[in-house]
Amino acid sequence: MVLKINMPAMGSLSLYLMQRLFVLLLCVLFHFNNSLSYSLKNCTIDYSEDALAAVFLDCSNRKLVSIPDDIPRDAISVTLLNNLLKQISREDFGNLSKLKILLLDENQIAQVDDGSFIHLVALTELYMSSNKLTNLSGNLFQGLSNLTMLDLSSNNIQFIHTSAFQFLPSLQTVMLDLNNLRQVTDIQPILQLPHLQTLSVRRNLFLLFQTEDLLLNMSSGLKVLDVSDNKFERFSITTKIFPHLEILDLSHCGQDSGLKWDIPDKTIVRNITQLYLGFPLIPFDELRKVLQSLESLRHLRLSYMEKWIHKGLLATVCKIPTLKRLDLFYNHVANLSAKLVTCSQLSELDLSVTHMTELSKGSLRLMKHLRNLKADTNLLTKVPDDIRSLSSLEILNLRDNVISELGCEDFLNTTRLTELYLTTNHIAKLDRCVFEHLNNLKVLDMSENLLWTFGGAFKISLQKLEFLDLSKNFVSILEKGDFQGLGSLKYLNLVSDHIGRVTRKTFNGLNNLGTLNVSLPLEFENNFRGLNQLENLTVHFNIDGSFKSPHPNNYKAFYHLKSLKIFKIIFKGNHFGFPFHVPTAMLQAMKHLEDFTAENLYISAPDPYTFQFNPLLKSLTIRQSDLSDLDPELFQPIPNLQALDFSESKLMSLDFLVQANLSALRCLKLRENELTVINETLFQSLPALTYLDLDNNPFTCDCSNAGFIQWVKSNNQTLVVNAH
């Protein structure tokens, strides 16, 4: 390497040479030791518009073999999922006193030194599932006095020291699923926790689970116990140990020969309000007796119980007077609903994923209190006739079926319905009468169907509807008055690849619409007039093979959007280098605009006067463009800009930032550009910058970037991510 040095005066020669040698040393170090190169080289931080927002750090999937030493001290959450960590030491988290959430799942951690978490005094959630821990020592969790959630699932834990949980007085939830615990006494230290609410020991190696084996002189405050997927020979719990138990999951418990559920005192089952069972491993007669003893049961789940259902189990279930919710998903039983005729007490019923082709006629007729019915992910070809008799129904989920048509009488008497989900069916058309009786409906999702016409269904009915999703359908024309009856609508999604025409006054009547996502053809007539409350607009333009730039007059459609705060324009496809004519007056009416996004819109930098009418703009995103000729004058009208994203914009220099006067800018994203060298002095013009993302730029790792590298390492304000 040859350095050309202009000699200074003799008096400052020594100082000058030391400075130059220091710069040279930095270059050599960073060139040959990439691990020293940039701050947060192994992690990313998501930017938040809130300057005081918590710092959430993501260091996942980086093949890390040790905890990064550059984690910000004020981090609230750190995610280290799916790395190669094998050990945690006392020095790893020494300066993270504000950390509240730590995720160490999917590593190879086999050793955690005692006291490794002693400095994490604010930690409330610790996740260490899918590691290689075999035992929990007495001082492992020292210092975690505020921890409320601990997940140690999918390890090889077979030993828990009697003092392992002594430092966890606030712990409420413990997850020890998929470990190698064998005796109920193994969990005794956990049951002594003063605030324990939930314990899950699913799929361990228990053969017996009997509270009589516990050496406890006190009862547990446990409310939720999950022991599912254990090959119990015998299960027995008592009120003395679990006086507050309300929710019990025994799904898939027992051996092929069966499970003996011994109930030494009836009080324990009388207190249970939720019971989950799966697979018929409890003998039929014993299970019936248990169900008959559940005097407080409100929620029962029976999955994969075809054998006992065929034998008549649901007749017993329907006699539980307190039962309000019944889940029967994953039961493949012909005419399953016919076995529920006497379940008149239910308010919630889940029949999803039962291979159902129809609801047996009259099976739900007596359910006068049913409020929520789920029959999704089945093979229904039409709306079941029994729906008409459910006058109390409020939520109906029929998504993921093969319904091809909606009839005028399908929802004739369901006048209390507030939510209706019909997404992912085969519905091709609507008639005006279909929804006319749904006067209280607030949510309607019909996305991913085959709709080619709305048939006037939204012109006179659904006056209380607030949310409507019609995306991914086949309607080709949006016409005047299509939505004129939806005066209460707040959210509308019309994104589709098939919309070829949008006529004038299409959105007439949508006086309260706040959010609109819509696909528009390049030639559109609509002018958005009447959308006085619209604050969030996303417009998708699809470019087909016959490219044609929108006529300049088309942009007058946006002149009426005076309340708009968020505006996104997304072009999909290749415009073959032809520029879109985007008049500066397009944004003229948007005096309250705070967030503007343009993807694949500009093939050259926008006109310097583009934002002259938008002084409140806080966030600007221009992606998939060519901004190599950007004029700094573009930023003069928007001095309040806080977030700027110029990713994928062919930038080779950041010199424009020096003259941009962005004194309020806090977030700068420049991913996937062509930056090779950055002059660190330009950051003097960005005094508020706290977040800088430079991912996937072809940086030159030599002396020309030494000043920038030193700035990254020495500044105490700006977090630089992905700059390596």
TrEMBL record:
One Gene Ontology cellular component annotation held by this UniProt entry: plasma membrane
Keywords, alphabetical: Leucine-rich repeat, Receptor, Repeat, Signal
The keyword Plastid appears for this protein: no
Species per Swiss-Prot/TrEMBL record: Lateolabrax maculatus
InterPro entries cross-referenced by the UniProt entry: Leu-rich_rpt, Leu-rich_rpt_typical-subtyp, LRR_dom_sf, LRR_TM_domain-containing, Toll-like_receptor
The protein, known as: Toll-like receptor 23
Gene3D superfamilies: Ribonuclease Inhibitor (3.80.10.10)
Keyword Signal: yes
PANTHER family: ANTIGEN BSP, PUTATIVE-RELATED (PTHR24369), CHAOPTIN-RELATED (PTHR24369:SF210)
GO BP of this protein: immune response; toll-like receptor signaling pathway
Pfam families assigned: LRR_8
Coiled-coil residue windows: none
